[in-house]
Amino acid sequence: MFLNVFSNKKKFTLILLSSLLLGIFIFLTNSKPTSSEKNGEITPTVFIHGFKGGPGTFNTMMNRLEQQNAGSTRMVAYVSRQGHVTLRGSLPPNMEPFIQVLFENDRASLKQQTIWLQEVLHRLKERHSIQQINLVGHSMGGLAATNFLLHYQEDQYPVVQKLAVIASPYKGIKKEGYFEVHSSPAANDLKPDSEALNSIFLRREFFPKGVDTLVIAGVINPYEEESKHWDGLVHASSVRALKSIVPFGSYREEIVFDKSATHSGLHEHPEVDRLLGEFLWGKPNE
């Protein structure tokens, strides 16, 4: 009988001690924010390349911005041809992280790229607790970012605070002979009056209010009449057409007049770096 009493007291003591330790663990867990919780306080900038783009589109720009203390490249989102998303890197709190989105199939349709972008941004919210982001897109990447916003679901994705598009052809590409050389789902969507481009304007009423938007176009022939201003591939008027979609008060445009402000040269242009730095982080980059 004595042994049974002793055994019961020992069990009671162990249960009491276990409960106490569990309570301390729960208290510490709830009282100290985790890295994921702190990630809700940061605003990553997501960079999206365009048609036939890849790492080279934004790698050097992000390196320059990093050297200018605008932020730090922290993550790459790889999207396979089958649509599988792999996030590589980490998002430490208390910083301005850069995230580059890379589509293995860089000739996919605008609809497909938008679906892939949705998956990337959904994962950032669900797995990394990202609550707000900025979007930067070059050419077709800007179209994908805009199309994402036109199909935005607040409970599924981070809130987009700012959108910057560089040389994005909202009215298509009119360069003579271009589509005789380029043939793919993406190329079809880049034709003037394509169904994909028309759908963007048909959904203009769904563009979220409060998304500050910057449009950057390049003009390599400033001495020509304005209707002929272009970056060697996309006319400035095609880029500026986004103005009819963005709600009043949220739209801003900048034109870079320079012979080096070509379609692919804009993401290497120091003036574009400066404009992005001022727009995204409130300070000009030197």
UniProtKB/TrEMBL annotation:
InterPro entries per the UniProt record, alphabetical: AB_hydrolase_fold (IPR029058), DUF915_hydro-like (IPR010315)
One MF term in the entry's GO annotations: hydrolase activity
Superkingdom, taxonomy of origin: Bacteria
One Pfam family, short name: DUF915
Record-linked PANTHER family: SLL1969 PROTEIN
Alphabetical keyword list: Hydrolase
Name of the protein in question: Uncharacterized protein with an alpha/beta hydrolase fold
Organism placement in taxonomy: Bacteria, Bacillati, Bacillota, Bacilli, Bacillales
